[in-house]
Design goal:
about 180 residues, Pnp Oxidase, Chain A, 4 helices
């Protein structure tokens, strides 16, 4: 394999839709800063056009990806086939963060499941698409999505969720700004 693509074609769209999870990697500019790699799931990834993707970013205990994107915009998404034929595809590009107060957030929010609550939408303009064999990726059977995140969000309620994000998602572990809105 090892093929480069100049855009997301129909075959890549089908591969993307078939995957139950993907990985996001970002890094700060400072060489002493922490590189971040996060798994994502829960039907959050969308192809917007042949050069653009977006994913719904749920509330979490950290906000490294958001902070790195605000600082430098560099991002890579990776999808692996855990079922079926072996394949890995990486989407390199530049990302933007759209928070609930941003018009772009409202424009894109309807593309994703309504629950659980989201803190942002990450928008990716793709510069490079490459696949590789994936021969070393093990086979796993998908059993289902975990219910803990939606259950946790429902138990928290809107006010407690806002307070949690204000405490945990304002900055990265390296002190970079992540979310803007909890500071309002």
């Amino acid at each position: 394999m090892g093929k480069l693509f100049d855009h997301i074609d129909q075959s890549l769209q089908e591969f993307i839709r078939a995957q139950k999870m993907f990985f996001v990697a970002t890094a700060p500019l400072d060489a002493t800063g922490h590189i971040n790699l996060s798994p994502k799931g829960l039907d959050t990834l969308r192809v917007l056009d042949p050069q653009t993707m977006a994913y719904l970013d749920y509330v979490g205990s950290g906000a490294e990806t958001l902070a790195h994107l605000r600082e430098n915009g560099r991002i890579v998404l990776m999808l692996c086939a855990f079922e079926g034929a072996p394949r890995i595809v990486r989407f390199h590009g530049h990302g933007s963060v759209f928070e609930p107060q941003d018009p772009e957030f409202d424009r894109l929010r309807g593309l994703f499941p309504a629950q659980p609550a989201a803190r942002a939408i990450v928008h990716l303009s793709i510069d490079r698409i490459a696949d590789s064999c994936g021969f070393g990726v093990p086979l796993y059977a998908f059993e289902g999505n975990r219910s803990q995140l939606p259950d946790w969000v429902a138990r928290k309620g809107p006010q407690a969720l806002h307070e949690y994000q204000a405490e945990k998602n304002r900055t990265s572990i390296d002190g970079l700004q992540a979310l803007r809105w909890p500071n309002d």
